[in-house]
Amino acid sequence: MAILDKLRRAWSVFSNQELLVTNSDLGPSSSRRTDRSHGRSYINDKTIVTSVYNRIALDVSGVLIKHVKLDEKGRYASDAQSKMNDCFTLETNIDQAPSAFRQDIAMTMFDKGVAAVVPILHERDVLALHITDVSLMRVGDIIQYYPRHVRVSVWDENEGRRREITYPKRFVAIVENPLAAVMNEPNSTMQRLISKLGLLDTVDTALSSGKLDLIIQLPYTVRSETRKNQADKRRDEIEAQLVGSKYGIAYADATEKITQLNRPAENHLLKQVEYLVEMLYGQLGITPEVMNGTASEATMINYYERTIYPIVKAIVEAMRRTFLGKPGLTRREDIRYFREPFKFVPLSQIAEIVDKFKRNEVMSSNEIRDALGLPPSEEPTADKLANPNMPQSTSPPPTSGVQNSERNSQNES
User: Fold this and answer.
1) Residue 295 in domain
2) Contact, 132 vs 140, CB < 8 A?
3) Percent with pLDDT over 90 in the chain
């Protein structure tokens, strides 16, 4: 039976005839990811803008989002057993895992200023007024706004191309970039920096184009047409010498004077770029230490509070308003984001924090072990909130004074 079970469960990609299909059976193809929108930030890779966007988007994707159940007091009780929670924790669509999906939302927000989370497959209530569950969602670009609708460009995995659809606003989670005033406005710091970096790249390209920019002073005037032809011929001869020489060497007459002009012109572009980068970092709550990975705990906490969590909060609020609404909150459901409690804590301080949490009965041993990435303990007291430094009473609780007096009167009688 074990051999038969093994044979039934063994699959080979190369021997399975259902998977061996020709390219003509798979639909349209491309050498790059066509399901994601590629805007200005993806193309302009020569600047630091893409690295800043990618750093923030990676940190946003590291914050976990869940569909949860609440108790009577509105507190987190458990994870919801729903398709929407599977989208947040397991698989958002056939192309993206949850972390890639969150990163895609952030990059679209940074590039366009707004992102649309479109529920591709979802369930509605009887009156078709509210969404009750979502089993497939994608990130789209908003092309046109209407009073109660939006036109969205979103990837259609069935046809293998991006399609434009007009959908009611109440069924699309519209996420606006909370940092749009810094990133997306026409005269914002980010746009000014992109413009200055483009000018700086243009100057660098001109300086490194291979031109010599020489002026040759000939020993005769070139006012007449004959002299001009002689000067053009002499210039062509020097060009031919430079091109045909192995090391780019040419000779000139003793009466000729050559002046080179390709010296870097003095400009303030580099200083302006450095000033704008410093201003942008300050407005986004980023430091150079955050970008190179050497930031301290206090710096990272400030960066997350000022930059990451406002972005995640905007995403969660938009999806809560669209995918749950008042009916979902009435059912004691919610969409929340969770952060790791010991993410920025050094190892030297974890032991002290864990001891305080246990002594004050904030977390049990298994909850702390789960936060640290350790398997749960099988000890009976590992799931109890108790102070390990205090003796635990195993005797039954004392009876009240009324019950004691009744027992004493019965004994006397």
Assistant:
1) yes
2) no
3) 33
